[in-house]
Write a structure and sequence with these properties.
Layout (H helix, E strand, L loop, with lengths): L2 H17 L20 H31 L3 H30 L3 H13 L2 H6 L13 H8 L7 H10 L5 H4 L3 E5 L2 E4 L10 H22 L3 H24 L1
Antiparallel strand pairs: 1-2
Helix pairs in contact: 1-2, 1-9, 1-10, 2-3, 2-4, 2-9, 3-4, 3-6, 3-7, 3-9, 9-10
């Protein structure tokens, strides 16, 4: 494993370890009727619910990558890495559009945007369309990935496409379990492919996602979890500086 791949995985390990220590307070919904115009307080509450939920899920998945690598379970780690990448893209997508609505003072529009983000479900819409008003269709992940290209112009599409290849029954997924020993013969192995190629884009998407969540929390006036997130981001920077010096 070269230095860049090692540093990327070290960043994921650091994120997983630090975020296990995060604690999240209860969030009480403002007393705004469902059909009433949205208030800044309601929008802030919805954004914080998203951020807290995002961080809990993100932390669990990144920890899963670390655990799976330790168990030499490369195929499963690749699938989880794709989900982590999606979370990073999604956080940036939500932050960008929500900020636009808030900056314009359009809190009802901001709430309309947040609703399918928080409670959207394609499954419920398709299987139980009578519930679509309560559980509207969420934005397709392709929107988030395309938007993410603003932050990762070279890696958003290519990195996500590469990780996605291992989530479907095609050549990259199946080739993990066999190799050619001569032009006529294949032998079956226990995942002969290393984890090369997943740590770089996954770590980059993770950090971009954390930065987007940090901005969302600041926008909403949140303080408690933001303090822990700042400490994590500072630790990531310090770790990167040390790694750069060590490789110089």
């Amino acid at each position: 494993m070269d230095t860049q791949k090692s540093n990327s995985f070290d960043s994921l390990c650091l994120i997983a370890a630090r975020m296990k220590q995060f604690t999240f307070p209860n969030l009480k919904r403002p007393l705004v009727p469902a059909k009433a115009p949205a208030t800044p307080e309601l929008v802030n509450w919805g954004a914080q619910v998203y951020c807290y939920s995002w961080m809990r899920h993100f932390s669990t998945l990144v920890g899963g990558i670390v655990t799976l690598k330790g168990a030499d379970n490369t195929p499963s780690a690749r699938i989880v890495a794709r989900s982590v990448f999606e979370l990073g893209a999604h956080a940036y997508y939500v932050k960008k559009h929500l900020k636009q609505h808030i900056d314009a003072g359009n809190f009802s529009t901001a709430w309309e945007f947040l609703t399918p983000i928080g409670v959207g479900s394609r499954y419920i819409n398709e299987q139980h369309p009578e519930e679509s008003e309560m559980f509207p269709s969420p934005p397709h992940i392709s929107k988030a990935i395309n938007c993410f290209g603003e932050r990762m112009p070279e890696d958003a599409q290519e990195g996500y496409s590469f990780l996605s290849e291992f989530c479907h029954p095609n050549v990259l997924a199946l080739f993990q379990y066999y190799e050619w020993i001569d032009p006529q013969t294949v032998t079956f192995v226990d995942d002969h492919e290393p984890l090369a190629g997943i740590f770089g884009p996954t770590a980059a998407a993770s950090i971009e996602g954390l930065l987007a969540i940090e901005e969302l929390l600041r926008m909403t006036g949140e303080r408690e979890v933001l303090r822990s997130l700042h400490e994590l981001l500072e630790a990531i920077v310090e770790d990167a500086i040390k790694a750069t010096k060590a490789s110089a």
